[in-house]
Amino acid sequence: MTDTQHGAGPTPGSFPSLLKKFGARLRRSFAVLRKNPMALLGTLIVFMFLLIAIAGPWIAPYSAFDPFPGQKQQPPSMEHPFGTDNLSRDVFSRVIIGSRDLIALAGLGTLLAVSMGTTLGLAIGYQGGWIDAILMRVFDSLLALPATLLALLLVGSVGASRESVFLVIVVVYIPIVTRVVRSVVLDVKTKSFVEAAKMRGEKYLYILFREIMPSVLPTLVVEASLRFAYAIFLVASLGFLGIGVQPPSPDWGLQVAVARNYWSTAWWMLFFPCAAIATLVVGVNLMSDGLKQLFQVPDLQEQR
Amino acid sequence: MPAKPTELTASDVPVLKVEHLTVSYQIGTGWRDVVRDVSLQIAARQVYGLVGESGSGKSTLALAIMRYLADNGRVTHGEILLDGENLLEKSAVELRHIWGTRMSLVPQDPAASLNPALRIGKQLEEIPRQYGGLTHHEGQQRALDLLRQVRIADPERIVQMYPHQLSGGMQQRVLIAMALSSEPHLLVLDEPTTNLDVTTEAVVLDLFKELIAKRGSATLYVTHNLGVVAQVCDHVAVMYAGEIVEDAGVNALFSQPLHPYTISLMNAVPRLGHKQAPAPEAQLDAARHNVGCVFAQRCPVALDKCFQIEPPAEASGEGRTVKCHRWREIADGSLPMGEIAPSGVNAATADNTLLMTLAEVTKQYNVEQAVVAQLQGREPQSVKAVDHISLMMRRGQTIGLVGESGSGKTTLARVVMGLVETDSGKIELLNADLAPAIQNRPTEVLRQLQMVFQNPDESLNPYLSVGEILRRPLQTLLNYSQTKTEERVIELLRAVRLPDSYVDRLPGELSGGEKQRVAIARAFAAAPDLIIFDEAVSALDVSVEASILELLTTLKETLHTFSGGGPGGRDRRHVSGAIVRDRPQRETSLGTHSSLYRSTAVSDPGS
Q1: Among candidate residues B106, B103, B104, the one with its CA nearest the CA of residue B81
Q2: Where does the pLDDT of residue A142 fall: very low under 50, low under 70, confident under 90, or very high at 90 and above?
């Protein structure tokens, strides 16, 4: 054994050691992704869409709103790779710009719902008692309603807008995330490492976030990414139903709703927004597989 | 006519034959040999013991034979022949059939191996119905029959129960019944009694002996417990660092061990009042040897050539082999091995300060009631887990609490810790009243009391590194500065004989014994006045336990809750029981121990 003199080596928590830790983590991430090509593919797809959403205005060849006079419903060509729509607009540009609202709404909505649901799930799962019982029954009754129906109710009461779509995602997903997190907490809190933490007088928050949270993380990450996939669906469906993002926004769901009327004469108007939705959702799902492996503790089969 | 004393009779044809088997695990990006060039054979009716400390590769060997290796393990060399057929060439479908009909495993942890969602009867019927072609009714009869064979009282009731409703001993018996249900040719037992208390273990071992004699299966018995080996096995192989260093008939091995490692293992069986010379431990982390003897680094009598030339497996007698350059010297007594383990006298003495008093402590649990019964206004039934226990402890004392599983030992420990609140009674620590609930106890009191839990898999957070686990109590309970904390963490690791490099490891990367040592280090971290051990060493192997018990004798105040009792032998837990017997004044002043044992029948409450 090497004799460790005091002061030798970086102390934990210091900047170099954190950097080292982060580097190790990054290497491990790549190792996991390399072993799972489907997850790698999913991650690439998701990152591609993120890039498209962020750099949309610079990537899109034309405006998403201005028509090209005299070029109504042109099939895909060199000039318009995805063709033009019934109002002579470039579909390619509209698909690109349309990703911005969709991904922002679905992403931020999921993020908020997941962080609130996690906090709630940790707290009530650990606390238990009557608060837990009451809140879970309330959530159960919310979950009993189909998400779209709940969305219709909400939008009906606050009016159709971006904000209300955001609200719908948060309200619909908080109970789901809470329930998932709570179920893991119920299992973990009985473990004796939690008791050991109590025995050294750890604060409530330390126990929740440092002792219990890591065990929740693998489940949570998968849940969050699935939620994101469903949120994309939800935003698109609300747009399609006309109660989400309003025209003239190039929202994908909205485009599909309009293109439905022209599918026999202009299939490209329907195909490309649909393909975009499908690709993104499948990509997110593939990525979530790899994420789970990433956050799980390396549990070696130890020989005894 | 040529003499043929060694010719095989029909029953001597080996059921299992393992030839030059090497098994590797993937660690990071490389592969590490965990079992190296192991050969063995087991005949029908033979019980073959495989002993070694944690990390010696004995469980891996057992799993490899069952073809149950995890994804990161693989057989890199050698053959495994069951009834002459090479198991390594079998497809997944064929293997399932073999598992169902010709070989079974009794695993170490019964709780983890039973499906919590299915009734016992259902799980027992599965194999006979799948592979024996029995009808539903016949399957049920078979399940009852199997339970009777493993001496479970009232099998009709047990088949209706779920695994969590049974005690550990009962669960293990159910698993044995399950393993026997296919009438296997080969039975692999992977530390089947390690998690059981002594009385249950004794019963289960008797059961094994009887069943094995009756069935005539070939049996591979993996254990770290030499006492069990002596009781059950015909032939023993001692494993060290992935190699079989010595194998011999059980009598030959115990009467004349030839390998220095075997000798140190036997010396490591703890004896009362003596400081142990712990068997030197395997540093699996240290650079793996490439040449020479695997044991050379730890061997007290190693020569230069032991580090350079790997000793061959030599036949040292009939049916026994040993891998040591110096076995001849050991055999003829010219190399005195007895002096390897110097003995000392237990220096721990009690002074008279009163540390803790329990007065009439009682805790009862209410049995869950059906809603209907509640509506009918029936009084909820309750079980007294701890019934008016009074007890005094002085500084420097070690008190053992002996009883079967279910007698309330753990509950009492948890009451003292404040994890469970008392119903009535009073606890005083250093003449000050102790709040019943842990959240009402000030930090100083928390520091004074610590506990080591039974199951290290659950008591260490799998997501926190060993360093973080050890740092935390220093920071919360002692307010140590960062540099001081780091020094102390290394000190603690060394005190429990773990290498410094373990600071960055996660619990999942340690073996069971190593995990428990981390848990013990954590309990000692803040220098508590009283430590409660809740069967903390019952899952460890002899050499590790010896080193931990030695560690404990250097500490001042400890309260052990042991399971124990029963006649002696080499079993280490009997020795733990002896620690209790060593202080008869405690036993008598316990006084109320009969009430402690009240809830379960106890075979020998006076031990």
Answers
A1: B103
A2: confident
